Amino acid sequence: MVQVLDDNGTVDPWRRRARRTRKQMPLWQELPLLLIVAFCLAVLIRTFLLQAFFIPSGSMEDTLLVGDRVLVNKVVYDVRDPVRGEVVVFRGTDRWVAQEPTGPPPDFAGKIARTLGDLVGVSRPGEKDFIKRVIGVPGDRVRCCDEQGRVLVNDIPLDEPYVIRNSPLDVPPNPGECRSRRFDEVVVPPDQIFVMGDHRLVSQDARCQGPVPIDNVVGRAFMVVWPSQRWASLSVPATFAQLSRPAAAPAQPVEATPVGGVVLIVPMAGLMSVLARSGRSPRARRRRLHS
Q1: 273 among known catalytic residues
Q2: Segment 2-54, tens digit of pLDDT
Q3: Distance (Å, rounded) from C-alpha 203 to C-alpha 205?
């Protein structure tokens, strides 16, 4: 061992004291500190950057199955608006009704556990957050159906291979219900999007619950992360590439038929955001989903 000597050839006492003060922290002190740091980082990431959502219903099958966990980018729509074909998580308006039963209220311990889980991303979602696919953006004209039973956006039919179980064509449209595949043309109002679930037979979406304000969008779901055998990215289907830019949306919103879907959110955490809002009012940070 090399020793540091002073001018008299003796060991420097300051160096000796410095070595004594650098003793390793005991595990019983270090472990709680590490847990606190990890918890704080998880809360920051969940709040500002990424969040995991638990899928509780089948309204997005077979793209998303019940029990899947998806990662949601909460920053992307701070710099741009949603694009057709993207899967988004959003807060439903007053017209949107959750599809999942709420269940009995939790006891005191359950409330504490749910609060902690919500902070770090392991809780179940609430009643007003949903996950759907964007079909129309502001100014788009959306209707169904053509002779082949396809949805049309700006009179261009969509070939949707991700729709495995579609709504029946022989059921007449009924306001407030999404049982029918057919619905009248909707002009998507300014600053709103028209969304639909991939499992049209059961999805409650914009067909019967109305379009969704862009300000209500939490973020874009971009990857299935659990279970591990279903790891996959959620890319934009090729059929949306044929659509041109929409015409300018009308000044007065046009009434549209609503949509519904319920998803459960397992919050993950968020980082510090330095991006300025693109002219939209701030979104609420604590949200839960429905599909």
Answers
A1: no
A2: 555 555 555 556 555 555 555 677 777 677 777 776 667 666 656 656 888 88
A3: 6
Question: What range defines the domain where residue 54 resides?
Answer: 25-269
Q: Taking residues 282-290, report their average pLDDT.
A: 44
3-state secondary structure of 103: coil
Does residue 274 lie in a domain region? no
For residues 243-282, one letter each, b for 16 or more C-beta atoms within 10 angstroms of the residue's C-beta and e for the rest, the string is: beebeebeeebeebbbbbbbbbbbbbbbeeeeeeeeeeee
Cα–Cα distances in angstroms (integers) from residue 157 to residues 146, 148, 258, in the given order: 7, 9, 20
Structure-token pair, residue 89: 């998580």
CA 216 vs CA 93, 114, 282: distances in Å: 8, 23, 9
Q: Is 128 a catalytic residue?
A: no
Strand partners, 5: 11
Residue 8 forms part of a structural domain? no
Could you say which of 57, 59, 203, 291 is catalytic?
59
Domain at 164, CATH number: 2.10.109.10
The residue from 57, 123, 128, 132 that is catalytic is: 132
Q: Which residue has the tokens 């029946």?
A: 168
Residue 134 in any domain: the answer is yes
> Has residue 17 been placed in a domain?
no
Per the structure, the count of domains in the chain is 1
- What pTM, to 2 d.p., does this model score? 0.69
**Which residues fall within 8 angstroms of residue 177, CB to CB, at 6 or more apart?**
208
DSSP 8-state code for residue 76: G
> Could you give the 3-state DSSP secondary structure of residue 80?
coil
| Length reported for the chain | 291
